[in-house]
């Protein structure tokens, strides 16, 4: 039975309750964050916390985040995940429970804070080596995709389109530009250079994306932060997605067509291997 955090209390997930008047339930009025841990050590925690704080500020939700590091660690401990090779903590903060009106509550209310932890298992080496597939889907999200809002219905529909197509990922497209996935960022590789959409209001500012860009540059791999046109994908030699649980995932087919030679490419492999080495060392307490 997993133990969750709800408004300062730790309790079995089956006993967690929120009021039906919670604005997260009624309006999707809230933000969330997912932070990875390796052997119980949280990776890039400060960046995840900064993104959460930015989202709270954008939505004008008053919440003190100072106790979050301790709460994250306690969730791992109570769920026996301190020794797990990889795990995550999901955190959601809504504006709280209040009478249903579209505007913010007239009287201040306490935000609702919910979090849980679970183990994350990577795909097997054999599965990763086969590569993954994607389908392009129109981007129907609101124009503030940079806020990690819990309002994810367009993302849900996009990922379901991928499921219906029998592929692994959706690739959101707007105005002919390949933006990102339904729950991860997208990179195309052209020869030795990787390209990904810049951080604007139309894409989520991925923590793993930022980390991979830095890692690629350390490896001497050129990086271009620019719009990637869908029509360019036909000459891409590789493609991959990044995300907290996606990590680095190679894409070998898009819309049924092979990316490059249809196999996992050397640039993606270099980044993946360097990333695994880095987080494995982190889990051992190195770095």
Describe this structure in words.
The chain is α+β, with helices and mostly antiparallel strands and 287 residues long. The chain folds into 2 domains: 3-119, D-amino Acid Aminotransferase, Chain A, domain 1; 125-283, Alpha-Beta Barrel (D-amino Acid Aminotransferase, Chain A, domain 2). The protein is built from 7 helices and 15 strands. Strands 7, 8, 9, 10, 11, 12, 13, 14 and 15 form a 9-stranded mixed β-sheet that branches. The longest helix has 18 residues, at 266-283. 38% of the residues are buried.
The secondary-structure element order is EEHEEHHEEHEHEEEEHEEEEH
The class by helix and strand makeup works out as alpha+beta
Tell the overall outline: globular
* Number of domain modules: 2
Share in helix: 25-40%
| Mean pLDDT rating | 97
Tell me the CATH architecture of the largest domain.
Answer: Alpha-Beta Barrel
CATH fold topology of the largest domain = D-amino Acid Aminotransferase, Chain A, domain 2
Gyration radius, rounded: 20 Å
What is the CATH C level class of the largest domain, in words? Alpha Beta
Total DSSP helices: 7
Largest sheet: 9 strands, mixed
Uncertain parts: none
- Superfamily at the CATH H level of the largest domain? D-amino Acid Aminotransferase, subunit A, domain 2
């Amino acid at each position: 039975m997993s133990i969750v955090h709800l408004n300062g209390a730790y309790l079995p997930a089956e006993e967690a309750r929120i009021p039906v008047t919670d604005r997260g339930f009624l309006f999707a009025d809230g933000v969330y964050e997912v932070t990875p841990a390796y052997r119980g050590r949280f990776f890039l925690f400060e960046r995840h916390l900064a993104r959460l704080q930015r989202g709270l500020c954008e939505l004008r939700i008053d919440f003190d985040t100072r106790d979050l590091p301790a709460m994250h660690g306690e969730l791992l401990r109570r769920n026996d995940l301190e020794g797990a090779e990889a795990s995550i903590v999901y955190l959601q903060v809504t504006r709280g429970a209040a009478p249903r009106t579209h505007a913010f509550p007239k009287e201040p209310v306490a935000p609702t804070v919910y979090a849980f932890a679970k183990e994350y298992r990577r795909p097997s080496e054999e599965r990763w080596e086969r590569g993954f597939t994607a389908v392009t889907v129109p981007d129907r999200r609101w124009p503030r995709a940079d806020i990690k809002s819990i309002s994810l219905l367009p993302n849900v529909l996009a990922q379901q389109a991928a499921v219906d197509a029998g592929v692994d990922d959706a690739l959101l497209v707007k105005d002919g530009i390949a933006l990102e996935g339904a729950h991860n960022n997208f990179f195309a590789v052209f020869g030795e250079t990787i390209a990904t959409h810049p951080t604007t209001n139309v894409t989520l500012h991925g923590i793993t994306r930022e980390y991979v860009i830095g890692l690629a540059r350390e490896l001497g791999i050129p990086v271009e932060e620019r719009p990637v046109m869908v029509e360019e994908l036909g000459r891409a030699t590789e493609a991959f997605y990044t995300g907290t649980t996606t990590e680095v995932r190679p894409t070998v087919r898009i819309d049924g067509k092979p990316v490059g030679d249809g196999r996992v490419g050397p640039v993606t492999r270099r980044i993946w291997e360097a990333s695994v080495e880095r987080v494995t060392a982190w889990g051992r307490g190195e770095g």
